[in-house]
Structure formats: structure tokens, C-alpha cells
């Protein structure tokens, strides 16, 4: 009989603690909860940043909607063809004194359909608009950027939903006088004087306008500018003198408050984008108008269908908070 002790084998494994197991389960569920919350926030932010009106979307396709009266459909979708009407507007030729015509009295220089047979998927379509611009308009003492402007109206081709339109509502107060966007009768020079239909007024309410004038400041190269409070040479001389004085006192030279660019900017008075020769005679030689001859048109492809109740709620809310005519001089 051997004297070796008996081998007791591997020590028994400790049983898993119920508390530790419960802790891991809680951590797992907490991690899943945090992941779901972050996913929901990220998805909401993505929808908000990508789709501006997602709160009124109908969560169905048009084929799934049984009651078409319960949804709001786009006038133009991927299958609907459309045209774009372009109009160019200017102030009438001024009188001999250069004034006497209100800003709202605009004259159409061009108004006709420029693009035909378009689809939302079309890209890089080009067109040239030719019109005659009276040079006498630039003799006005007061000239603003919107005194020469272009307006654009998107017109769905027939047949379309516009053919069945009987009424429409806009968020702007009716007291606001918007500048015209199409000559009437349309196109310009048409002999037919048929009054505008409801559909025509509705399409015009969606139109946009852009200014075709820009003012670029032309700075004088002369040393002494009569419209400046101080010439650039004098300003530079005072700056050097100030530095020498500070050096003699043993102090660090301080920069003058007005730099060369700031002194030059002081010579350009008045509101930007406006040439007012009556108040600022220097505008006649320094603030020259330039005509915009090239622009781009982009249409956002928003073809989702909306829930009618949610849409009307947001529409009425916007109408109730819209501004009045005292807060809006020109709406473009």
C-alpha cells in the first residue's frame, strides 16, 4: 500500500451569483435602450434635415389611399410635364427730372414661356431670353437692385390637376401687394384680354422673383479723396508718427483704430444695393449698376403626399402668424 495522498481532483466550480447575472441582464437591456433612443433621435434629425414637412406626410403611397380627398397631392410629380414662364420687369422711362414714378409702377420688358416639356428629372436645360432695356432707366437719381428684376412661374402642362382647381388659399395676407410676375394678357403682346382664371392666380402665387441689378463699389485711386475724412497718405503718416512717438517713450506701438480699408470704407455712404445720387452725389461715380445676365433655376423635387388635416392645420397656423404690409416693403 502506497503512502501517496489521494488525488482530490479539480476544485469544484463556484456557482454563478444570481445578482451578478441580473446585473449583466440589466446592463444589456440598458444598452439596447440607449441604442434605440439614439437611433430614434438620429432618424428624427435626418428626417427633419432632409424632409422639411415630414410632420404632415401621409404614411401611404397614392395607390394605397382609398379616399383621395383625405390627402394633398403635388401639382407636379415625376410624371407631370410642366413649363416655365419668364418675365423681365423694369421701371418706366423716367421723366425729365429723373423722378415722378412710383416703385410699384413696373413695365414688362419680356413675358413668355421659355422652357417647355420639362420633367423633374431634367437637368442642364438652357435658354436665352432677349429683351430691350431702356438705358434711360439708369438716369434715375434713385436706383435700387429690384428696379430691374426677373420673375419665374412654373405652369403644369394640360392635362393636370390644375384643370380641376376651383379655389386656393395662400398664407400671405391679402392686404400685401405683391409685384406682378406675369404680364396680362399673357404672353406679352397677346391680343386676347381674357381675365385671369383662378388657376392662373394660384400659379402666380407660387412664383418667385430675383433682382437683376447689382451695385459694385469702385474705389478711387487718387491719393486725396474728397469724400473721405482723411487721405490714405495722411493716415499712413500719422501711423508712422505714432509709432515713432511710442518708441521714444519706450512703449509698444499701438495700432490706430482706422486701418486703410476702414478709411476707404468711410467714403461709401448709403444703404448697400441702392444708388441714391440725390443724397449721396458720390454714388454717380462710385456706385455703378451691373446687369445680371446669367442665372440658374432649381426646382426641389418634393412629391410626397400630405395628410389633409395635418396640412390644413399647419397652413392655418402659418396664416395666423404671417406679417402684415407694414413689415414688408417688397416681397421676392
Automatic annotation (TrEMBL):
Keyword flag Transmembrane: yes
Compositional bias annotation for Basic and acidic residues: 234-247
Statement: the UniProt record of this protein carries the keyword Membrane: yes
Region (Disordered): 234-272
Transmembrane segments: 21-41
Keyword annotations: Membrane, Transmembrane, Transmembrane helix
Skewed-composition ranges (Acidic residues): 248-263
Protein name: Uncharacterized protein
Species in which this protein is naturally found: Mycena rosella (Pink bonnet)
